[in-house]
Amino acid sequence: MTTISCVYLAMSGLSGVAVSQTAAPAQTDGYEPPQFRVVIETAPPALEPGSAIRLAVDGDFAPYSFVSASGGPAGLSVELALAACAELKAACTVAARSYDDLIPALRRGEVDVVVTGPRLTEESLREAAMTRPYFRIMGRFAVQSGSPLKTADAASLASRRIGVVKDTVHAQWLSAYFENSEIVPFETATAAGDALRTGGIDTLFGDNLAMIYWVSGQASGQCCRLLDGAFSDFDHFSRNLAFLVRRDRPELRSAFDYGLDMAQ
Fold first, then answer.
1. How far apart are CA 117 and CA 44, in angstroms?
2. Distance between CA 27 and CA 51 in Å, rounded?
3. Which of its termini does the chain have fewer beta carbons within 10 Å around, N or C?
4. Which residues contact 96 (CB under 8 A, 6 or more apart)?
5. SS3 label, residue 125
6. What integer pLDDT is reported at residue 35 of this predicted model?
7. pLDDT reading at 105 higher than 90
8. What is the pTM of this model?
9. 3-state class of 167 per DSSP?
């Protein structure tokens, strides 16, 4: 399995509130998100080798896409898109744009494929054709490694201090469903992580991938572990990610579905 394959998710039938997706690993190393994209055996697309394809990503959507310190686009979805391009033997370029300009740029023909950014709504799908979803955004709790907490349901976390970045969809979800817990808001994810690491809060809730990377990375100092499984709630933080393709380039949709499948 490649490192790229670890970020593959697609529609898995989950819906509703606080649906636990997977059991938490027993150690802090090697956490991987579940894989839900079903590979469909298809023939290689009729795309000329070396075809020039212009990709666009949201420049402020970490860890999926963002502008790196060097000024270029980076992130998990960027790596995934380039891996698909390699499978297609296509000459792809990637540019970061503002969220508000992604669909208009696609409509104007300035880009061929939007990799991250727009939500999959009736409006966006009138403007573009979508690939099969490659990822589902979910939420996750983390606790200190020595915490006695075993599960992340509302009853288990009653009266516990739950940290979250304020004014986010994750904060809204906690307010809706964990009213018997003490919700502790933080200005930044860094401040929230530091509070968990130093014992200022009992648990931390945020984006599933962000929690995995933080727990396994240097910033946490190996202090903590994931609690329970990932949570999906489409009314708040969950969304499926897919590539959006120009409607006048239908061959690109089938090409990238093939490329995403083969990149595993």
1. 27
2. 44
3. N
4. 56, 57, 58, 59, 65, 66, 67, 72, 73
5. helix
6. 55
7. yes
8. 0.72
9. coil
